Metallophosphoesterase (Pontibacter fetidus), 246 residues
Amino acid sequence: MDKKKKKTRVAAIGDIHVRETDKGKWVEFFKGASADADVLLLCGDLTDHGRASEAEILAEELRACSIPVVAVLGNHDYDQNEQEEIRKLLAQTGVNMLDGDMIVLEGVGFAGVKGFGGGFNRAMLAMFGEPMMKQFVQEAVDESLKLDGALSRLETEHPEVEKIAVLHYAPIAATIEGEPEAIYPFLGSSRLAEPLERRQVLAAFHGHAHVGTLEGATAKGVKVFNVAKPLLQKLEKPIPYFVLEV
């Protein structure tokens, strides 16, 4: 008789914005996530001002986490141009830092990129106009291609696993509803949804939109979750992190 495959519990949160003054603040949080889940996803804006000193505090706090951690950087993590040092510090602590990379943990495949802006659907910016505008659009294209490459490797090397995407910027407009429409182009891009659908991803997680909407889906039904910490705390029933069984 075939045994049922054990469900993998994936906890996800973004925009934790760790500060230099946060020593001791996150220990219980990471202990709780370790008890509730098998894998923890951190969806960008790991630091508040993009300082390596903030990442040092986070690395120390993460010692309380006893489950694998997968993370991508967010726009805040780039603010002081110390993103590579932040990435290195967290990787040395055992965090699986993804930037066009993939990893399989607990029988689930994870692919991650930061993503970028550019707008959604018919309002998505095109590769047209001034060089600076083209550069902006090219960044979104490059992030989408990195995501597709990581998902493609998962598909080829581990065809048996379900695929989950870890992002900071939103791939659909539905999960940023609640934010001012004027800033939609800076919160995400539909270009990120294309690889999700092409590679038949089970679910995607992102942050960045603090006043967005928890759940949505791409046109082809890929589930998308906005797990920005400020949003999770403002739900009718606040939660410390979102947990999905895979």
